[in-house]
Amino acid sequence: MNSFDQLIAFERETQALGQIAGRLGWDQETMMPRGAASQRGEEMAAIEGVLHARRSDPRVAEWLETAAAPDEVGAAQLRNIRRAYERAVKVPGTLASRIARVTSEAQGKWAQARADEDVASFLPVLSEIVALKRQEGQALAGDGNLYDAMVEDYEQGTTADEIAKIFDAMRPELVALRARVLERPQPAGLTGHFDETKQMAMARKIAEAFGYDMNHGRLDKAVHPFSSGSGLDVRITTRTNAADPFNCLYSTIHEVGHAAYEQNIDRAYLLTALGSGVSMGVHESQSRIYENQLGRSRAFTGWLFAEMTEVFGDIGLPDANAFYAAVNCVQNGYIRTESDELQYNLHIMLRFDLERALMLGDLDVENLEAAWNDRFFADFGYQVDKPSNGCLQDVHWSVGLFGYFPTYALGNVYAGCLNEALRQQVPDLDAQLAIGDTTAATTWLRDNLQTFGGLRDPRATIAHATGQEPDHAPLMRYLDAKFSAIYAL
């Protein structure tokens, strides 16, 4: 084989091992016995050591030096492998393994601290994670910005200053719209007991309605819903609450957006550097457009109202209009994952600013809870009542995902762009959604974005799909129009 073929064959094995590591993570969140956490930490550290050694193998540099790309796809393969290699060689293998071990064990400590409402018990391991991630960030950044190097892991080609500029433009508009909405009477909500077995059955039906292929996936429960895997094995999780079926159903739609992206990537890219979503921001654009612009639309909620009344009987709402208002209700709340579209980005902006300060040394870990509570009060106007509703609510920092949070809001920005383009090109979309048919929307997203995987960089991926450079204006137009109509502003 020539250098290019040898490199691609080596990369396939590395990608396959990465999938195994991902499966260990999936098992840890869904099936693993609680008492196995320490052993799983050793297992994760061992496989991360193997992966790091492969990603920084000197032969990769040799192949990259002499490999000739046969076409555009090959050039993209080389670009992505080179980027991963250049990052991998900057991080010592011992540090990569240490981070894998500590963060694997930290998940259990975070879960226990969250259950006990005990921030102090989590701070020692969080301090260790922050110190380790700072070491990693500095190794990656060199003379550059440490936090930018972390963002690069999730949204390549984007800096923290660029993100901050977008957020600073959006924040006052979001705060003002939120204030106007909360002055209006609140719509009625669901009432009754919603059998959790029936919720899961409906979640599976909805997942398939949005194009999720159960032959190459499965739906399970987890404390924190997530999607895992790519190609031929893409798994999702959700959670149930007998008093709140929306939590289950919309978490499922959200994760289906992630999973559909992975399932729909061109099979020719399977187990290659192009065979997964190009960035977390683009990934989040898929989960958010599935969940919000499609799943929470007036058209689709009309179909969902009929489905829910058939399964659960009287749900306390008289008609589809009342149901639509309930699905999109804006009200005070603490939890990011349960937040409405209007307030969600404010939750992300809070986390972005705090984690950036942690990484740059502007905020000490022991002061995190106070800083979180102060910022939350400033943005939302009421006090955090307990740690599980505050700085302990998310798993991300316990697993070392610094630089990840801002991609959630970038995903919303991208989804706003995609939604405008989709509706221009599929003018009868609402008529199809009204009968529970998402095919036109999911096919458009597959053909214009998902199938390309990592072929293009994030912003180019969105520009290719929409014909325009990403901008936050479409999202703000969408939010203003939607909530002005619902709340008669």
From TrEMBL:
Catalytic activity annotation: Release of a C-terminal amino acid with broad specificity, except for -Pro
GO biological process: proteolysis
One GO molecular-function entry: metallocarboxypeptidase activity
Keyword Transmembrane (UniProt): no
Cofactor: Zn(2+)
Enzyme Commission number, as recorded: 3.4.17.19
Catalytic-site annotation from UniProt: 255 (proton donor/acceptor)
Sites where the protein binds Zn(2+): 254, 258, 284
Keywords on record: Carboxypeptidase, Hydrolase, Metal-binding, Metalloprotease, Protease, Zinc
Enzyme type, top EC level: hydrolase
Gene3D superfamilies recorded: 1.10.1370.30
Pfam families: Peptidase_M32
Bound cofactor: record note: Binds 1 zinc ion per subunit.
Family that this chain belongs to: Belongs to the peptidase M32 family.
Functional summary from the UniProt entry: Broad specificity carboxypetidase that releases amino acids sequentially from the C-terminus, including neutral, aromatic, polar and basic residues.
Name of the protein: Metal-dependent carboxypeptidase
